[in-house]
Write a structure and sequence with these properties.
0% strand
Length: 231
Amino acid sequence: MGRRQTAVERTRERIVAASFELHASIGPSRTTIRAIAERAGVQRHTVYAHFPDIESLYEACTVHGIRSTAMPEPGGWRSIDDPNHRLRHGLAEMFAWYRANERMLGNVLFDVDPNTQVPTSPDAFDLRMGALLDALLDGLTIEPDGSPTEPDGSPTEPDRPPILEAVVAHALDFTTWRSLVRGGLTDDQVVTVLMGLVGHTRERRDRADRPRHATGEVAQGPARQALRAET
């Protein structure tokens, strides 16, 4: 790479870094091209030369943010064979990342510029979250109903219905973590509560569908059960 090309790449990196820093601190809707240019030490036309539209700048910022904040990667999670251990490890790692980047995530995810066109395809953050969710779901199943064998004698395959995917996605979501910690829970307690929720969802349906109040037991949600078990 020649000197000129190297200089061009460094200028582009400064623009992306400046844009991300502004998005993280004041939000995308308050970030102007003028502010980005001033922070990067370039002229406005230089910003436009590298990023002719706001969508390409946002995409570059997203990739930069994932890399610079060391967002968890699915490969490390998949190296954990036991799905329960993987889920606990993944949630704990994700919540630590949420805590370290709470202000940035609050600004970037929710301070949306109303003049920006809604993306029609997932961005780099969405793709990473999808890959992390897939890593957590791998091997997680709901035990089959009734007999452990099919009529022909073959083992009944474990089931992973949409409800399980929805619950694990809810557990992994930033807003779930933020709501619970703002409610007074620690990160460890949030992990415990959500592990209980996923575990409850994975129970055999014949047990899960049996109403506990019919036996005189006071019905309790999985979150309360998990916290009581912890104490």
